[in-house]
Amino acid sequence: MAAAATVVGIDAQTLMTEMRSGKSLAQVAEAHGKTRDQLKTGLSQQFGQNLDALIDRVPPTRMQHAPGTPPTVTPQT
After folding, report:
1. How many domains does the chain contain in total?
2. Domain membership flag for residue 31
3. Residue 67 class from Cβ within 10 Å (0-12 exposed, 13-18 middle, 19+ buried)?
4. Domain containing 21: what range?
5. Is residue 75 part of a domain?
6. Cα distance between the two ends of the chain
7. How far are the Cα atoms of 9, 60, 67, 72 from residue 75, in angstroms, in the given order?
8. I need a surface site. Which of 12, 15, 25, 60 has the fewest CB within 10 A?
9. Using alpha carbons only, how large is the chain's radius of gyration in Å?
10. pLDDT (tens digit, 0 to 9) for every residue of the chain, 77 residues total?
11. pLDDT at residue 48, as a whole number
């Protein structure tokens, strides 16, 4: 919701309030001066940035074993 609110130019609480009143995301955007195409473009950019961050944020411990083999567990002493 935060990404959509940013694109529309309002805070997340306002967006949620307007959507709870029965408006679609496109209707909220249009009420705040954004076209449907501007909304789609903005969301694509926001989600693209978030996706890149998620892809790059893999903890190193998850890849310390060869793909297709189980990770090695070191017993604690």
Report:
1. 1
2. yes
3. exposed
4. 2-55
5. no
6. 46
7. 52, 19, 22, 10
8. 60
9. 20
10. 899 999 999 999 999 999 999 999 999 999 999 999 999 999 999 888 877 777 777 665 555 556 666 666 555 65
11. 84
**Residue 62 counted as domain residue:** no
Question: How confident is the model at residue 52, as a pLDDT?
Answer: 77
Report the distance separating Cα 65 and Cα 55, nearest Å. 18
Does 43 map to a domain? yes
Q: DSSP character for 62?
A: G
Give CA–CA dist 8/30, Å, rounded. Answer: 9
Query: Nearest 5 degrees, angle CA 72-CA 53-CA 26?
Result: 135
Residue 74, token pair as written in the block: 């070191």
